Amino acid sequence: MAKLEKPVLVELLATAVDGDHCVSLAAISLNFELVGSASIVFADSDTPTLGNLFVLEGRRREGIASGLTNAALSWANSMEKSLYLHVQPTNTAARALYQELGFEYTGELTDSGSYWMVKSAFECRLANPWTPPLLGEEARNA
Q: H/E element holding 98?
């Protein structure tokens, strides 16, 4: 099967999971292959959280994760909500992507040690965004 350049469709699918509101996102290629997905769940009524973002290994670095994240941001803005996510400290590619898209570190950690990030609704900025420490390759290149 020939590899296509980019997916043509990022679809938002509203669903209910165990009674909780959830929005699913799917990136679908021209030949109808699911090449990426993500979900937005609510930690509470005011905290939509982007999670489970996945792109097929052979389709990474094509802008699919950016497309899924931007679709989630558009949805959050339409709901007048800030969008949260968490990312592992060692996932430098994801951290760079999220920062490029305007997410800021909140300074809080998940129970598993991931960094919480937020992109405020309507392009607002955090008053005092937190800067995480540099790790491994980042520290050597600084």
A: helix 92-100
Is 4 part of any domain?
no
CATH code for the domain in which residue 18 is found: 3.40.630.30
Domain around 45: 9-141
Which residues, 6 or more positions from 9, have their beta carbon under 8 angstroms from its beta carbon?
Answer: 26, 27, 28
Residue 3 falls inside a structural domain:
no
Q: Each residue of 29-41: pLDDT tens digit?
A: 888 888 999 999 8
Work out the angle between the directed axes of helices 92-100 and 64-78 (0-180°, nearest 10): 50
What is the spatial distance between Cα 103 and Cα 119, in angstroms, rounded to a whole number?
4
Beta strand 83-87 with 104-109: parallel, antiparallel or unpaired?
Answer: unpaired
CB 77 within 8 A of CB 121: yes
Length of the chain: 142
- Give a yes or no: residue 35 inside a domain: yes
pLDDT in tens, 120-140: 876 555 556 666 776 666 656
Any domain includes 27? yes
Q: Domain count of the chain?
A: 1
